[in-house]
Amino acid sequence: MKLGSKHTTLLVLAVIIIVAPFFFPSSYYFRVGSLIFINGLAVTGIVILTGYAGQVSLGHAGFAGIGAYACALAPVYLGVHPGLALIIGALLSGAIAFLVGRPILRLKGYYLGVASLGFGILVAMLLTNEAQITGGPDGIRVADLGIRGLLREMGFRVKGSELWYVLTGICLLIGAWLALNLHDSPTGRALRALHGSEVAARTVGVDVARLKLQAFVISAVFASVSGSLLALQNRFITPEVAGFLHSVEMVTMAVLGGVGSVLGAIFGAAILTTLPQVLTVFAEYEYAVLGLVMMLVMIFLRDGLLPSLAKLIKGREQ
């Protein structure tokens, strides 16, 4: 049976997640892999918002910060399990995105980008200034998820880096599956229609405002879960997770790999997550390189690296 694009994407991701550890020279690469999966989950949300619906957000790291700090604060102040705190953070992010998205999604182009940027900066400022609750710039510890201890009691010995590689890989597969199912659904087709032309979509009966808000809320939940996973893995979090530069990283990853493609965006996340780990000598110039990469891709590879490579290979075959 011929596999469709959705099944092919999920199959490719699953194969990479399963096979990659056989080529890891040390356990350190399990951590790098889990960071790729966490960032891949965040950029999958960007694909839904920007690639499907055509809306730009420069403040999505704010939702990652909400998810991260929910996992840090909810167990302390509400007495809930960190896993439940992740769900609370996702629900809170979705609710805030619903409230914030209604007014700012009326804007278009760079006005929308600036408005979303303002939201992200506001969240980062709150996390930094409310030091009595959040720990301020120094950050705050995050409770242990407890899965490793549970596995140890059951007789399974597993390293923390390997456990998080598996957990984040599963989360990425679930996120990709949801995004791909949305792409093929009537809602996904309507989102792509308004991406092409809001006027034309409205003419044929598409509720443009409602769909844009839905895409914004869904992408916010993706970002929140990615922030929660990062906090739970590191057992520590700082306001940088909600900072402007993190938002820029998300958008750059998606654009680099191909913002219209789930697999392409994850590919971009893999590249920009791996390079700083490998080329540590250029750490001081990381954001300058990000800006340069964004400019070059937008000029020469408008569709992103992976879609452009696919078109090149297909053209040669013909």
UniProtKB/TrEMBL annotation:
User: Where found in the cell?
Assistant: Cell membrane
InterPro entries for the chain: ABC_transp_permease, LivM-like
Q: Which residues cross the membrane?
A: 9-30, 36-54, 84-102, 109-127, 163-180, 213-232, 253-275, 287-306
Q: Which Pfam families match?
A: BPD_transp_2
Keyword Transport applies: no
Q: Which UniProt keywords apply?
A: Cell membrane, Membrane, Transmembrane, Transmembrane helix
- Gene Ontology molecular function: branched-chain amino acid transmembrane transporter activity
In the bilayer, the protein is annotated as:
Multi-pass membrane protein
Task: Report the GO terms under cellular component.
Answer: plasma membrane
**Protein name stated in the entry:** Branched-chain amino acid transport system permease protein
In the record, what lineage is assigned to the organism producing the protein? Answer: Bacteria, Pseudomonadati, Pseudomonadota, Alphaproteobacteria, Hyphomicrobiales
